[in-house]
Amino acid sequence: xxxxxxxxxxxxxxxxxxxxxxxxxxxxxxxxxxxxxxxxxxxxxxxxxxxxxxxxxxxxxxxxxxxxxxxxxxxxxxxxxxxxxxxxxxxxxxxxxxxxxxxxxxxxxxxxxxxxxxxxxxxxxxxxxxxxxxxxxxxxxxxxxxxxxxxxxxxxxxxxxxxxxxxxxxxxxxxxxxxxxxxxxxxxxxxxxxxxxxxxxxxxxxxxxxxxxxxxxxxxxxxxxxxxxxxxxxxxxxxxxxxxxxxxxxxxxxxxxxxxxxxxxxxxxxxxxxxxxxxxxxxxxxxxxxxxxxxxxxxxxxxxxxxxxxxxxxxxxxxxxxxxxxxxxxxxxxxxxxxxxxxxxxxxxxxxxx
Length: 354
Ligand code: 5GP
Ligand code: MN
Description:
Blueprint: H1 21-32, E1 39-44, H2 50-65, E2 70-74, E3 106-110, H3 124-127, E4 130-135, E5 146-149, H4 156-167, H5 173-186, H6 197-207, H7 213-221, H8 226-237, E6 240-242, E7 251-256, H9 258-263, H10 274-278, E8 286-294, E9 297-304, H11 310-316, E10 320-322, E11 325-331, H12 334-345
Helix pairs in contact: 2-4, 2-5, 4-5, 5-6, 5-7
The chain binds guanosine-5'-monophosphate (5GP) and manganese (II) ion.
Guanosine-5'-monophosphate (5GP) binds next to β10 and β11.
């Protein structure tokens, strides 16, 4: 799922400038010091999106080119890859979380802002010889021994690309397809503010390997089962617009239940794309989709067009994310979850005079 408009936090923090030379050098050393028969475990965040999976598998393919033989890629939770992300190069590296090396020589984490996003795999940070974190969330808690965190990067794949350059691994079509999926996912296909000249330069280098952007984009963004099309129609039909919310900037929201999914025969991940249809609403700055994950739990997606720092809303409610694209786990009923969000919106309004 797209991260939405990735934005650098306005707060000054050590990570705001991206990794320093010593951190890049430490990351290169961590990779290069894996013994010949060493085990490397790659982990991306729960419910992986295109950036998480693409960055992880692209890096995995590069490690293979460097001669790493004992190599696994995984993510917490059910070992289910969304249909749209199946068939990526390097997919054969994926193993269910339950089969992941218990004590790898090196663990590398992708696109996870905090340890909580690693679910049941969080113990590997302690059992691994070294833990390397690659990410672009401003809120990253720097939970690795070595942290490559660049909040200015449009996607985690930008950080991966820089590390591959420093490791001397050239791009091939397999690596490029993975990184392209990641880059297009997090820039909303080059539509969000984070689409800098550097993003287009990277896209050009990826395309130069011969990958087919039309095929990739159709598969990732423009394909869904007919049942999901009908499900979207129903869920969008119950969307509500609250023009007075967020200091008059407006809130639009909807929800989807497990029963909705069952009636249309759909898997939960198909709902990840729903926020993109909801956030089109002209009359609202903030958009929200509340997706039931168990009888009492909801995965919440929040987006803003620029008036509200939705990561503040998400953090206040136990989650995190980027300034204009964030999320958290809600409890109770869907209405209750939205009540809690509404209460946080005014405090999260961005003061344009700053
Ligand atoms: P999405 O709405 O696409 O699921 O998530 C948007 C962004 O919000 C993601 O990039 C991720 O950083 C963040 N996010 C979503 N859900 C959670 C959550 O439950 N906890 C945290 N910490 N961040 C989340
Ligand atoms: Mn990302």
